[in-house]
Amino acid sequence: MLWAIDAPTGDGAGSGVLESPRAVEDHLAVALTQRDRDILDFERSWWTATSPKDVQIRERFELSATRYYQLLSELLKDGEAMSYDPLVVRRLQRQRDRRRRARLEPRVVEDDGGR
Questions:
Q1: Does an H or E element contain 37, and which?
Q2: Strand, coil or helix: what is 70?
Q3: Is the pTM of this model over 0.85?
Q4: Where do the structural domains in the chain lie, given as residue ranges?
Q5: CA pair distance 44, 82, nearest whole angstrom
Q6: Strand, coil or helix: what is 23?
Q7: Mean pLDDT along residues 79-91
Q8: How is residue 105 annotated by DSSP?
Q9: What's the rounded Cα separation, in Å, for the pair 97 and 8?
């Protein structure tokens, strides 16, 4: 974690205290890029096209599916993405959480009474 120092100035405006990492991140926040917005727009309507999603990703973004999903995962953590399209972001977060739970929860094997 990086800490930033609010350096004192000659006029006494700076306090000379450390700012929390959250405050540093807030100062470094960057607005969504056009590609970020395009990814969110694509997630809103990709199923309306006739070609498979991975083909659409390659053609539209010139990215591998793996890299696309890495970028999408980062977008789901971004407050700017939530502001841009809250319905899509929340839907994708729910899907991600559902898949994560399914992966982590132990599978229940039912006994069919045989042998």
A1: helix 34-45
A2: helix
A3: no
A4: 41-104
A5: 13
A6: helix
A7: 95
A8: S
A9: 45
